Amino acid sequence: MADLKAMALILGGMLLAFPALASPVCATDDLGKEICLEQPAQRIAALSPGATELAWAAGAGDQVVAVVAYSDYPPAAKEVTSVGSHTRMDMERLLELQPDLVIGWVTGNPTEQLATLREMGVPVFSIEPRSFEAVSDTIERLSILAGTEAAGFAEADRFRKGITDLRARFSGADTVPVFYQVWDEPLMTVNRDHLIGEMIELCGGDNVFGHLERLVPRISAEAVIAANPEAILAGGMGEENRHWLTRWQSFPSLTATERNNLFFIPPSLVQRPTPRMLEGTRLFCEKLEVARDRRP
Prior knowledge:
Blueprint: H1 2-17, E1 25-28, E2 34-37, E3 44-46, H2 49-57, E4 64-66, E5 84-85, E6 88-89, H3 91-96, E7 101-105, H4 111-119, E8 124-127, H5 132-146, H6 149-169, E9 176-181, H7 195-202, E10 205-207, H8 221-227, E11 231-234, H9 255-258, E12 262-264, H10 277-293
Parallel strand pairs: 3-4, 3-7, 7-8, 9-10, 9-11, 11-12
Antiparallel strand pairs: 1-2, 5-6
């Protein structure tokens, strides 16, 4: 009898030591839906390049079995099976890979395809980080669902600290009127509520189109000329394509052109809500420092 009691105590202690074996893992997505898995995800499908980067940031790169076009970072992501683009997935191919978690993009993936996955019982965790803090928070939530909390929470903290340090460094910087070009044809920018808008503000920039209502508004070249930004920053179709800045060289009366404050920023460092935004923000802040130094 004593041996049975001792064994019961041992088994009870083991169950207390390994609660994850008996409990599901849960996290709430950016649609406010709680997603629960019976066990941490082992076969993850990331349906945007940003989601792919965030899965790796969460420490779950080895569990990613499906990505979409332009999922080019980290380099290992290029070796993962592609299931189409973020705007149209090959559903048959995706389901053949038997994902136990799909990371969806709230405004980027087709709602009907995500709905189909949910109807078939595939867990879909929808994300769309719109602030620096949301980037860290998303990494943490993904790491919970993937069972990689140690790596994910460490990366989230690293990103938070980096952003906090930059914010302190540039908190007293002189304001620089800025136009950020997010697309060329049609000409598009971002408002102050966009994550890039937060980046501009952190670096001491004044987004000349920050007041516009739409998150990613269309504008005209005439509107840029009228706003007369002191610095123009742009990405392009690719990491080395700087031609979007060429058009502004034909407007010598623009302050940004006159002072040679036309700066290229690799788009993947700025336009994907991932930890690489820390590097992009540092670069953005450095460009605005150059603009300050060029003042007469």
